[in-house]
Design a protein that fits this description.
The complex is a heterodimer.
Chain A (H helix, E strand, L loop, with lengths): L1 H20 L3 H21 L3 H26 L15 H18 L13 H8 L4 H22 L2 H20 L11 H22 L1
Chain B lengths: L5 H21 L3 H25 L4 H31 L13
Helix pairs in contact in B: 1-2, 2-3
Classes of the chains: A mainly alpha, B mainly alpha.
Chain lengths: 210, 102
């Protein structure tokens, strides 16, 4: 298990280094998948198999799929390669190396063994739906807010108007079944669009009703 | 070297966090910046799981699940912002969004 930990740790560090240095965006994201797989193996060696499975399913599966969808949607391959000037690494590398040295010094002053026992899904679930059940509810609200927020941010300004118009058309069409089409609450664009859109379906529904 | 110790796992988490942080400072592409934030959040989760394994408690893994949910929410909103960014500025370089001169 110890050897597995060190191998996975080396793979994780190397692939994460590749993520931040690649100039091709898709290559960087694929290295990130490798990095997440390696961290999943590290979780397994630490005695957390449930979290290791979730790392693969949610991080390497769902979140990376979201990244790749965004890359395809943005047509990033049309861009030039993402060159980073060598000098741009100097400042961040020095600062981060100092911080990292401090953290490693603080962490490694005394060696503490792990408990060794594996914590399975059952223990995690009992904690999750026992004392942490409020956190689960808050996480669900956070995800819902992110869903609505992402849709709202990514929608173009014209999309809202278009959606409102299509709802208006649908309502006018529903009213057109009882009343004369074109005399609903529709605005001017609806009056123009009404005969074209509703002629076929309305005839069909009238025949269906009769 | 009988078994993995807590400090080894924490050092790994610190190294991953530092790499992500350096990438965040040096890279200018919005998608790469988001990926670096993911690396840093993942390293933080690794520290949680390692600490939970040290004391044999499930709480560390529970905290990792919350970090996971937060990372998913963050990346969804971040990528939506990237799409808007691309549409309005015709690029993904965060230095192009300097109109506020902050």
């Amino acid at each position: 298990m110890t050897v597995l930990f060190y191998i996975a740790a080396v793979v994780a560090v190397l692939s994460t280094l590749m993520v931040v240095t690649r100039t091709n965006l898709v290559h960087a994201l694929l290295y990130l998948v490798v990095s997440l797989f390696a961290v999943a193996v590290v979780f397994y060696t630490l005695g957390a198999p449930f979290v290791a499975a979730l790392e693969v399913i949610v991080y390497a599966g769902a979140i990376m799929m979201l990244f790749l969808f965004a890359v395809m949607l943005l047509n990033v391959s049309a861009d030039s390669p993402l060159r980073v000037p060598k000098l741009a690494w100097l400042g961040p590398a020095i600062l981060v190396a100092i911080l990292l040295a401090e953290v490693i010094y603080g962490v490694t002053r005394q060696s503490q063994p792990l408990a060794g026992a594996e914590i399975g899904p059952q223990a995690v679930s009992e904690a999750l739906y026992g004392p942490y059940v409020l956190g689960v509810e808050l996480a669900s609200m956070l995800l819902l807010a992110a869903l609505i927020g992402a849709r709202h941010v990514a929608a173009r300004a014209g999309d809202e108007q278009e959606a409102a118009e299509s709802m208006e058309r649908a309502r006018a069409k529903a009213e057109g079944r009882t009343a004369q089409p074109g005399q609903g609450l529709g605005a001017e664009p609806d009056v123009i669009a009404q005969p074209d859109l509703s002629a076929g379906p309305d005839v069909a529904t009238e025949e269906g009703d009769a | 070297m009988a078994s993995v110790s807590l400090d080894n796992a924490l050092v790994l988490a610190a190294i991953l966090f530092a790499i992500g942080f350096a990438g965040l400072l040096a890279r200018r592409n919005l998608i790469v910046v988001l990926a670096c934030i993911e690396i840093m959040l993942n390293a933080g989760g690794l520290a949680f799981v390692a600490a939970g394994a040290r004391w044999g408690q499930a709480d560390g893994q529970v905290m990792f699940l919350f970090v996971l949910a937060m990372a998913a929410a963050e990346v969804a909103v971040g990528l939506a912002i990237a799409i808007r960014f691309r549409q309005s500025l015709k690029s993904l370089d965060i230095d192009d969004a300097d109109e506020m001169k902050g």
